[in-house]
Amino acid sequence: MNEFKRVWLKKEAYPIIGIVGIGAGMVAYHSLHKLTGTEIVYNHKGNPFPSLKNPADYSPSYLHYSKKDVFSPKDFHRSFDHFVYFLSFFIMDSPYTHQQDQILLRIIGNVKKINNAVDSLNSQLDQIISTNNDVQKFSQLWRQYNKNSATYLKSIDSL
């Protein structure tokens, strides 16, 4: 037992043990849920037609969610931030953590500036496109006017 503790129960192994434990728990829950559900029947003598006892709106999946339960990207980022914060307690402290955090903050700030610049560029491009459309419509009208004027002048000369 001491050999097991010495080899496996180190601070570095806690995340691995936790992840494997959570995975094993999820497998156990899923297996138990599916084995005790009405889709699988072990004894047809006691219940020859088990699906007839299900209600009309029965859905064999166990994940039921409404429209409000679906995550938006903002909710996902918020929950991911909580998850990273939770995991930060299990990660060993590095002497470079503060420097890495500062670098990440600079990167995030620069990405935000780039996003703002791209948004500004997109809005300016939309304005240019709408202006170009107006110029194109005006040039079509001018060509048609020139064509009509030339036709009118020819008809006057022929009279």
Backbone shape: flat
Give the class from helix and strand content and strand pairing: mainly alpha
Strand content: under 5%
Sketch the topology as an H/E string, one letter per element.
Answer: HHHH
Ends distance: 117 Å
Biggest beta sheet attributes: none
Helicity range = 55-70%
Radius of gyration: 35 Å
Q: Which whole number gives the mean pLDDT?
A: 78
The overall number of domains is 2
InterPro entries: B12D (IPR010530), DASH_Dad4 (IPR013959)
Transmembrane segments: 12-32
Family: Belongs to the DASH complex DAD4 family.
Organism: Furculomyces boomerangus
Question: Could you give a short description of this structure?
Answer:
By secondary structure, this protein is an all-alpha fold. It folds into 2 domains: 1-65 and 79-92, no CATH class; 100-159.
Describe this structure in words.
The structure is a single chain. With 159 residues, this protein is an all-alpha fold. The chain folds into 2 domains: 1-65 and 79-92, no CATH class; 100-159. 67% of the residues lie in helices and 0% in strands. The chain has 4 helices and no strands. It has helices at 2-8, 14-36, 73-87, 97-158. The chain is flat. The termini are far apart. The model has no long low-confidence stretch (mean pLDDT 78).
